[in-house]
From TrEMBL:
The keyword Transmembrane helix applies. This is O-antigen translocase. It is a multi-pass membrane protein. Keywords: Cell membrane, Membrane, Transmembrane, Transmembrane helix.
Length: 485
């Protein structure tokens, strides 16, 4: 039993470290790209990029039928059973459905172009821009299906390489186009980046399962179970993307593109980039959790192991991020983005609660309770939108950061409370201990941003960062060596 637990902990640490490292490289590449893009486009241009990207995500989520998530479960089952022939056949089923959803997504984008133009802009006619985004939506659908195939057959190395290639391609594509065309290059960049990601994914996927056109007649009927499971994921994605789009449209209308650009920069640094560390949960943790989802004790062990490692890795980085944002934001963007520093600092606190939420939230997905997942996601996004509206009205940009953190606190309490009652989930003593200590360091770092300045600010922040890092390193070392909770 001890050997099994040690192996489990080492596995979580290994793959969280691998994908965390990959995402760290992606973040560095993204920071370089965003620095240059911010200089070329300014806050207004960054806001425009945010609006178009959010629209693409919304349409993609609304039309992909959740295949990128539900297909992983089905392919993984075939693969784990050792049924090579059935696995290859189901790959064709997934590809057939992805082609159908790609065509559907492009059609919806073209038809709803005028609606999105009126809903997201209070000036000008941007219908053509939305119509030209249609190819990106189609390519995202294909990429999602091929990514699900790679996840299902545990090709984690290939997935890591795809992420690196996509990040490098975004740097190579975006900078010269924005330099030459400015804001007019935003739509071409989005489409070309989608193409680069799709190409890299297809290259790895087709090497494992070459494209076959024979035997494809009638395969769409075989994927109905996968689609039914994916419908709730689709609806949850629509709710999430719709909420994000509403918030950005609201900020654009109530404020302006510069306000939206500032918000997007803060959100990107504190939520998007910090959240990339959780990529191991989707690629490695989710299949492992699915394999033990009917065993309460094994589920609790798997969830707590993932949460312990995630806390010890993410929390010290968040503490450092809160302290260093006054330096990072003008350095990584431009001096025009300095007003977003207070918003980004308070929003960074949200990620502490995200670490305590995501591993538990995957229990619902692993058990296939798609409607429950939908209702929990909907409840979170309703709270998110309401808090954002109230926060911006009363405290401006700072209020959006407060709203993000409060929404994540609400989600953490809701998800953990539901799992406690419904699934018998019990948080381990180690998770409680790590969470309390590391949260205290995080809140100390944030308190310094309010009450201290000058040399005293940096001295206290340095103490918080070093103490958090040493505590995390000590526990990572002792846990991996002796597996003590």
């Amino acid at each position: 039993m001890n050997e099994e637990r040690n192996e489990s902990y080492s596995h979580v640490l290994k793959y969280t470290g691998v994908f965390g490292g990959v995402q760290g490289l992606n973040v560095l590449i993204g920071l370089v790209r965003n620095k240059i893009v911010a200089m070329l486009l300014g806050p207004g241009g960054m806001g425009l990029v945010s609006l178009f990207n959010t629209t693409v995500q919304l349409i993609s989520q609304a039309t992909n039928l959740g295949i990128a998530m539900s297909a992983v479960r089905h392919i993984s089952e075939c693969y784990d059973a050792g049924d090579t022939e059935h696995t290859a056949h189901y790959v064709k089923v997934v590809r057939g459905w992805c082609l159908l959803t790609a065509l559907l997504g492009m059609l919806v984008c073209v038809v709803l172009g005028p609606f999105f133009s009126n809903a997201t802009f209070s000036w000008g006619n941007h219908t053509l821009h939305f119509v030209l985004l249609a190819p990106a939506i189609g390519m995202l659908a294909i990429t999602g299906g091929e990514t699900a195939i790679l996840k299902g057959v545990r090709k984690l190395g290939a997935l890591a390489l795809v992420q690196i290639v996509a990040a490098l391609a975004s740097l190579v594509i975006a900078i010269p186009i924005y330099y030459m065309f400015g804001q007019a290059g935003i739509v071409p960049v989005i489409v070309l980046m989608a193409f680069a990601t799709m190409s890299a994914t297809l290259w790895f996927s087709w090497r494992i399962f070459p494209l076959q056109l024979r035997g494809t007649r009638g395969i769409l009927g075989e994927g109905m179970e996968m689609v039914r499971l994916g419908v709730s994921f689709t609806l949850a994605g629509i709710v999430g993307s719709g909420a994000e789009m509403f918030v950005r449209s609201y900020l654009n209308v109530m404020g302006d593109l510069e306000v939206l650009g500032l918000y997007n920069a803060g959100y990107m640094l504190t939520i998007t980039y910090a959240g990339m560390v959780f990529s191991a949960m989707e690629t490695d943790y989710y299949p492992r959790l699915s394999a033990v989802n009917h065993d309460v004790a094994a589920t609790n062990l798997t969830v707590n192991r993932q949460m312990e490692v995630s806390l010890l890795i993410v929390a010290p980085m968040l503490t450092a991020l809160i302290a260093l944002l006054p330096i990072l934001i003008p350095y990584l963007f431009t001096s025009e983005f300095v007003p977003v520093v207070p918003m980004a600092q308070v929003a960074a606190l949200a990620m502490f609660f995200k670490v305590l939420t995501m591993p538990v939230a995957y229990i619902t997905l692993a058990r296939g309770y798609s409607m429950t997942y939908l209702m929990l996601e909907a409840a979170y996004y309703v709270a998110f939108v309401l808090l954002m509206v109230v926060g911006y009205q009363y405290w401006g940009l700072l209020g959006t950061g407060i709203a993000i953190t409060l929404a994540h606190v609400f989600e953490c309490l809701m998800i953990n409370g539901y799992a406690y009652k419904k699934y018998g989930y019990r948080m381990s003593a180690a998770v409680y201990r790590y969470a309390i200590v590391l949260l205290l360091f995080g809140f100390l770092a944030y308190a310094c941003t309010i009450f201290l300045d000058g040399i005293v600010y940096w001295l206290v922040e340095l103490v918080a960062i070093v103490a958090s890092a040493l505590y995390a390193l000590q526990n990572l070392k002792s846990s991996s060596m002796s597996n003590k909770l």
